[in-house]
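Exercise 7b. C-alpha cells:
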C-alpha cells in the first residue's frame, strides 16, 4: 500500500486502506467495540466455535 502521510502521520494511509475495502472505509472504534461487547454478553451464549471476522469484508477480497 502506498499512501502519503497526513499531518498526523496516520490519516492518509488509513483512508487509503479503507478506500480499498469492500465498504470503502475503515471501521470506527465503536464498530469493533460493539462486536466485542456482544461476544462478551449473554446474548452470544449460543455462539461457539466460529471465527468472526470484523474487517469490513477484507478477508473475502
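Sequence design result:
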Amino acid at each position: 500500500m502506498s499512501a502519503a502521510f497526513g499531518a498526523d502521520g496516520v490519516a492518509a494511509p488509513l483512508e487509503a486502506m479503507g478506500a480499498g475495502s469492500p465498504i470503502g472505509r475503515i471501521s470506527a472504534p465503536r464498530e469493533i467495540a460493539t462486536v466485542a461487547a456482544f461476544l462478551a454478553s449473554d446474548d452470544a451464549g449460543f455462539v461457539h466455535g466460529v471465527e468472526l471476522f470484523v474487517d469490513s469484508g477484507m478477508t473475502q477480497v
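Instructor comment: The mean pLDDT is 81. DSSP finds two helices and no strands in the chain.
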